[in-house]
Specification:
Immunoglobulin-like; single chain; five-stranded mixed beta sheet
Length: about 450
């Protein structure tokens, strides 16, 4: 912008100097020549820079993680002659897979249309804005350059929904099988098959599995087998999600906080799809909570809340640096009135170990249950996707991983079901399948 003003000043200054020199010297040739830079300046101002209208077509409002989408841009250039640079802004976590998001167009005196198409891949969950930017310059380069961001569209990137069919807590942890069997003891039977079990006095004859009973008899088992179905009226589940800035371990694309979001997305989808009443609280992040509800509407609320999950800056002390213990205290009315099953998603370290223990003690008091715990903790292990440049850093990462697993073992000894999840080595589906109880 500065050089354009400088060129304009040079033309006007040249006109004034040459004109007055010709006037003082009474030289008509100099006076006539002085109008040349003035004429060039007036042409540049009169013609002006081109004007651009941009529109994006068929851009989806939401996509899944690692999904490729095609971006089509159509536009029209009017106004004066000159050069037009079209650049569609791509957020940093996105990858350009095919095509080009940059185009230079030369416009004459007639109206001109253009098109631009490319493909991008979404590599990180969140809310993003895709805005098409353009820059115009007049044919003589004398008018001011116009820069604008037009037709900005919001794009929401959601995690991939995992195909979790079933998950339970081990029998050695609790007598209640959770969550596939964490149901009301009363209520009508549904049509959802749960398992085959031994016949118990009082079971209706219509649920006896005669084929399975015949096979069991051939193996010397005399007790009939029956089909058991899920009962309606599932219990409530409450999620505690940790959004501590320490969870930004890793890269800008792959970090522990991103996998916390993915784990929460998978867990909430599974429970709500099974008909559970689900609530959520995000601690260390403004104390955001979503009250108990069921169905697709609740899942949309949770998904939108997770996409807005942005950690505070490291070292910034704010009111909501609460920790798990205080989060449990803030939600005691939900834990007392509904007595829900609890799922905690965090990264267990020495810094939050005591806070976790204090929070678990409070849960035991609120729920008035000291022998049986319906609590599951998912421990994110992020050290495998931290960039390492030396053997010392690799060794340090392994030591931190071992330390976190040792805290998980101590929690298991207290009766809490802990799942250590390393996203680099195991999918969320396989990790949750490890909660299946052997019969």
């Amino acid at each position: 912008m500065a050089w354009i003003a400088k060129e304009n000043n040079l033309l006007l200054t040249g006109f004034a100097v040459i004109f007055f020199a010709g006037f003082l010297l009474a030289n008509s040739i100099l006076i006539c020549a002085s109008f040349i830079p003035l004429f060039i300046y007036l042409i540049g101002v009169f013609i002006g820079a081109p004007k651009v209208q941009i529109k994006k077509t068929d851009l989806p409002g939401s996509v899944r993680l690692n999904e490729s989408i095609e971006v089509d841009i159509a536009g029209k250039i009017t106004g004066g002659s000159g050069a037009v640079v079209i650049c569609d802004e791509i957020p940093e976590p996105f990858q350009l897979v095919e095509g080009n998001n940059y185009k230079v167009i030369s416009k004459g005196f007639k109206e001109k249309t253009f098109g631009l198409s490319y493909r991008i891949r979404c590599t990180k969950c969140g809310n993003y804005w895709l805005g098409a930017g353009w820059e115009t310059r007049s044919i003589l380069g004398l008018s001011k350059t116009q820069v604008s961001i037009d037709d900005a569209r919001q794009l929401r990137v959601f995690p991939v929904v995992p195909e979790i069919r079933r998950m339970k807590l081990p029998m050695r942890m609790t007598q209640r099988v959770h969550p596939s069997e964490s149901i009301s003891k009363i209520g009508p039977l549904s049509t959802d098959f749960k398992e085959i079990r031994n016949y118990v006095f009082g079971d209706p004859f219509k649920i006896i599995n005669w084929k399975a009973s015949a096979k069991a008899t051939s193996r010397g088992k005399s007790t009939p087998l029956v089909n058991e179905y899920e009962r309606e009226g599932k219990l409530a589940i409450w999620l505690f999600i940790d959004a501590n800035p320490d969870l930004r371990i890793g890269t800008s694309i792959q970090n522990a906080l991103g996998y916390v979001v993915q784990a929460t997305y998978a867990i909430s989808y599974y429970f709500l799809n099974k008909g559970y009443c689900l609530g959520m609280y995000i601690y260390n992040h403004h104390g955001e909570n979503i009250y108990f509800d069921v169905g697709k509407k609740q899942f949309i609320k949770i998904a939108e809340k997770l996409l807005k999950l942005i950690p505070r800056n490291v070292g910034l002390q704010v009111l909501w640096d609460e920790g798990f213990s205080e989060a449990v205290e803030r939600n005691q009315k939900y834990l007392i009135t509904r007595s829900p099953g609890i799922v905690i998603i965090t990264h267990v370290t020495s810094s939050n170990w005591n806070d976790l223990l204090n929070g678990l003690r409070k849960i035991l008091v609120y729920k008035r249950r000291r022998r049986q715990l319906d609590i599951m903790l998912i421990n994110i292990l992020p050290y495998d996707f931290v960039p390492k440049t030396s053997n010392r850093e690799k060794f340090a990462g392994k030591m931190l991983d071992v330390a976190s697993r040792s805290y998980s073992n101590r929690l298991r000894n207290l009766g809490v079901t802990v799942l250590d999840w390393n996203p680099r080595k195991q999918s969320m589906e396989i990790t949750l399948l490890s909660t299946m109880r052997l019969r």
